[in-house]
Each structure stands twice: as C-alpha cells, then as structure tokens.
C-alpha cells in the first residue's frame, strides 16, 4: 500500500510539474513568435488578432519537438525539489531505493508521450490545416517558387497527388506536373503528365496533358487538357508538411506515397517518431532522474547542472541527426526512431550504476 502511494505521489507531481514547464515554455515561444512577426510585418499591415490566431494554431505542432526538453527539465526539477525537501532521504530511510523513485518518472514520461501521440497529435494536425487555410495564397505560393513539391490531398473518394518540378509566379504557374488519383484501397486509378499547369478561376488547368491510363479509372483528359477543381492553397497541404497529417492517417498516406513513386521516408520517419515518442520520453525522464538523484543526495549539484545542459544539447544533436538519417532513407526510419530511446535508456542505466558506486 505504501509503495503504491509513493508511486502515485511521485507520478502526480511529475505530471503537474511537466504541465507547468510546458505551459511556461509554450508562452515564451508564442511571445517570441508574435514579436518576430510584428517586427517583420510592420505596424501598417499587422493584424494583431489574426497573427495571434495563427500562432495559437501553430503551437500544437511544436509540442512534439519541445517535449523531450520539457521532460528533461521537469524531471530534473522534481528530483531536485524532492532532494531539497529531504523527501529522497526519507524514501531511502524507509527502504525505497532509487529505482522506486525513478520508476514513476519513467511511467510519467511514457503517459505524456501516449497522450500526445494518440490524443494531441490529431488535434495538432487539425490545427495545422486550419493555420494553413489562414495563409493567403499569394504569400504561401511566394515561398514555394522554384522548389519541387509533392502535394497530397485526401477526400472521400481517395487520394490525389500532384508531383511538381517547379512553381512560378506566386504559385499561379506550375511546370513538370504529374497528377495521380488513387482510391481508398490505394489502387492507382489515373495518371496524367503535363509539361505545365496553371490556376485560373479557382481551377487547376493542365496544358498538353497526356493520360497514361491504368485501366482502372475512367479517362479524364479531353483534347489534351484537364481541369481540376483544386483551390490554389493546396500548396500548403503538400506531403512534406508532415504535421498536417495525423498519426491515424499517416499509414495510408505513406502507402499511397510509395505507390505513386514519391519519397515516403520523411513521412515514415515522422510516423515512427510518433509511435516511439512515449518510449523516448520515458527514457529521457529516466536519464534526467539518474543524473540528478545521487548528486542531490550528496548535496553536490554544480557539475550535474552542467550535465543536464549537456544532455539537452545531446538530445538536440541526436534528434536532428537521426531525423535527417531517417528522412533521407539512409537508415530505416523504424531503426532510427526506436534507437533513440535505447540510447538514452542505456545512458541512464550507466549513469545510475556509476553514481551509485560513488556513495
């Protein structure tokens, strides 16, 4: 009974402190974004309420990248507070060793990861799509000029892909366009190639289009032309914008992306990272607790605060490096995503073992 009460006490404190750190960090990030946007836009054309709405809509998609650092800081702060208030010493005196203290921290990290992956991530994708819809077409298109794009759209009938080589004139003109339509079972219905396409009157018109029929869908090209009722803002819904696709939709989009010959590695890496996020946050919580636990008990923290800062840099480096490896396909995304929790978990075991011998 006492062990269960201790577990839930630490678990509850961990969740509350993590939420507090997350809210504080989110507030700081949003304030910085607002200040930067107001500086770039200028007072004459700055819509305060509109910019605030866009920043708020962007916030959920930022959480995934922020969570590892939030867990690192909140776990270290909690162990530090329990040490300063002599709770760790009391736990040790009543026969509760370090593993009994660190276990609820690991579970707390896993729970937070599960909540984000399966509850907040779908909300983040909705927010991202709403935020994209708020962007004016000309502004969104201007950022796309001269860049190849893989654009994916989802509707009740299946998937629509636009593979674009070049984008010009604020997204009004496209060059080197391939249009592919798939049904909900990921069967390729239509494939159309065109040297160029342009938006006119709310429709995307293909010139000199060639229908490379697949035998499944009805022909859609007439007189070497094709017109599709796509809004110009579809450029903001490109497949590379991984945060606009929820964890529940990603497997289908990845399958469709492979089928049409586009690169699936970025989306596959994002999906595996989401699935492995609970394990990653649990491992980071364990490592942070292992770094702080014994120094707090000895009253020696100066070098270990530096160790926490070094761990934050290590997280940034490893996450960035492995994301590049998985996104490019150099290493299978599943190995990259699940390798990070293993690395941090093993590091935590080594740190805890070495520091326990110094007592």
Question: Main traits of this protein?
Answer:
7-stranded antiparallel beta sheet, 9 helices, 359 residues, alpha+beta
How do you describe this structure in short?
With 359 residues, the chain is α+β, with helices and mostly antiparallel strands. It contains nine helices and seven strands; from the N terminus they run αααααβββββββαααα.
State Rg.
Answer: 25 Å
Proportion of helical residues: 55-70%
Envelope shape = elongated
> Would you report the number of β strands?
7
Number of helices: 9
- Helix-and-strand structural type: alpha+beta
Mean pLDDT: 78
Largest sheet: 7 strands, antiparallel
Strand-residue proportion:
5-15%
Head-to-tail CA distance between termini: 29 Å
Order of helices and strands: HHHHHEEEEEEEHHHH
Oligomeric assembly: single chain
List unreliable stretches of 5+ residues. 134-148, 236-240
Descriptive account of the structure:
The structure is a single chain. The chain is α+β, with helices and mostly antiparallel strands. It is built from 9 helices and 7 strands, in the order H-H-H-H-H-E-E-E-E-E-E-E-H-H-H-H. The protein has helices spanning 2-41, 48-84, 87-93, 98-134, 137-142, 250-259, 265-298, 302-328, 333-356, and strands at 149-155, 158-168, 173-182, 188-200, 203-207, 210-211, 225-228. Strands 1, 2, 3, 4, 5, 6 and 7 form a 7-stranded antiparallel β-sheet that branches. Helix 4 packs antiparallel against helix 7 (265-298). The protein starts with a helix and ends with a helix. Mean pLDDT is 78; it is low at 134-148 and 236-240.
Topology at a glance:
Layout: H1 2-41, H2 48-84, H3 87-93, H4 98-134, H5 137-142, E1 149-155, E2 158-168, E3 173-182, E4 188-200, E5 203-207, E6 210-211, E7 225-228, H6 250-259, H7 265-298, H8 302-328, H9 333-356
Antiparallel strand pairs: 1-2, 2-3, 3-4, 4-5, 4-6, 5-7
Helix pairs in contact: 1-2, 1-4, 2-4, 2-7, 2-8, 4-7, 6-7, 7-8, 7-9, 8-9
């Amino acid at each position: 009974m006492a062990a269960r009460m201790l577990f839930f006490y630490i678990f509850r404190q961990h969740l509350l402190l993590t939420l507090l750190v997350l809210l504080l960090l989110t507030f700081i990030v949003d304030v910085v974004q607002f200040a930067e946007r107001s500086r770039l836009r200028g007072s004459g054309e700055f819509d305060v309420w509109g910019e605030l709405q866009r920043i708020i809509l962007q916030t959920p998609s930022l959480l995934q990248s922020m969570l590892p650092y939030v867990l690192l800081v909140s776990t270290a702060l909690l162990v530090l507070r329990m040490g300063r208030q002599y709770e760790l010493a009391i736990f040790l005196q009543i026969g509760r060793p370090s593993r009994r203290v660190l276990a609820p921290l690991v579970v707390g990290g896993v729970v937070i990861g599960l909540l984000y992956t399966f509850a907040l991530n779908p909300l983040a994708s909705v927010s991202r799509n709403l935020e994209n819809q708020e962007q004016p077409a000309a502004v969104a298109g201007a950022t796309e000029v001269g860049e190849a794009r893989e654009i994916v759209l989802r509707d009740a009938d299946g998937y629509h892909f636009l593979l674009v080589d070049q984008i010009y004139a604020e997204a009004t003109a496209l060059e080197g366009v391939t249009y592919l339509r798939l049904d909900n079972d990921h069967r390729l219905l239509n494939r159309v190639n065109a040297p160029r396409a342009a938006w006119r009157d709310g429709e995307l018109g293909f010139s000199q289009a060639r229908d490379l029929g697949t035998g499944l869908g009805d022909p859609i090209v007439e007189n070497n032309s094709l017109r599709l009722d796509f809004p110009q803002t579809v450029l903001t819904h490109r497949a590379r914008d991984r945060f606009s696709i929820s964890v529940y939709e990603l497997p289908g989009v990845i399958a469709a992306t492979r089928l049409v010959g586009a690169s699936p590695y970025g989306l596959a890496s994002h999906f595996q990272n989401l699935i492995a996020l609970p394990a990653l946050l649990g491992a980071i919580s364990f490592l942070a607790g292992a770094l702080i636990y014994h120094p707090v008990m000895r009253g020696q923290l100066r070098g270990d605060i530096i160790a926490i800062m070094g761990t934050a840099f290590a997280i940034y480096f490893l996450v960035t490096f492995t994301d590049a490896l998985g996104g490019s396909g150099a290493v299978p995304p599943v190995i990259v995503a699940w390798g990070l929790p293993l690395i941090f978990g093993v590091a935590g075991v080594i740190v805890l073992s070495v520091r326990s011998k110094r007592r």
